[in-house]
Structure prediction request, 240 residues.
Amino acid sequence: MDQLLIALDVPTGGEALQLADALRGSVGGFKIGNQLFTAEGPVIVRTLAAKGDRVFLDLKFHDIPNTVASAVAAATSLGAWMINVHASGGSTMMQAAAEAARRTASAEGRPAPRLIAVTVLTSLNATALSQAGVNSPVIEQVTRLARLAQQAGLDGVVASPQETSVIRALFGPDFSIVTPGIRGGAAAASKNDQERTMTASEAIAAGASYIVVGRPVVAAPDPREAAEKIAKEIRSSLAR
Ligand code: C5P
Prediction:
């Protein structure tokens, strides 16, 4: 199931590899975030990429353009399939990142990674935004940053379930939308710390290109079975 990405939010490379071995073939790829990358380093990305897995390296780069471009080049060389940066780093930063991804991939003869932007972290609400000097409603800030990302040549954005349909309507069918916050339906389990959630099929119906699922699969007694159930739900949603 190409659209289903699993967040390998586990503390060690050993656990990540074990999960990936159990899930390979049932899912579309694996997300490696700050926890696992900081603990285990790039070897986990290289190892999964060498096994043919699609790796979404979720490190949310945000720095001056030259530094982000160098980090994106390094992530491309590792074999990451998808990489993200913060859109709030600005247009020049995103353009430098996109250019670095293209240049590195072409020099190394590999497909260019998908480069996507984080707009407004879902942990921030209107009050938190205004404390940081942003006085527009959250959805306005999200669409403003998504537009900046598209204009800078990025392939898409990470979006909460609530933002997905607005972004799909505004930015067209070719803009990738990666949606976490999946709960309910086949992704039962408790909501954990996710507040505004959707089921996998609702997110796909709202226009998500990929959904990211962590705990409902990773913490399930049988992760493969849990992933297969979600994949089945997505398949039936696509068939409708
Ligand atoms: O366990 P759960 O399904 O909530 O995991 C979702 C994954 O997506 C986690 O790795 C989390 O960090 C990430 N994520 C998120 N919400 C965002 C962006 C990323 O939950 N807005």
Remarks:
- DSSP finds eleven helices and eight strands in the chain.
- The chain has a mean pLDDT of 95.
- Residues 7, 9, 33, 122, 158, 160, 180-181, 192, 194, 212-216 surround cytidine-5'-monophosphate (CB under 6 Å).
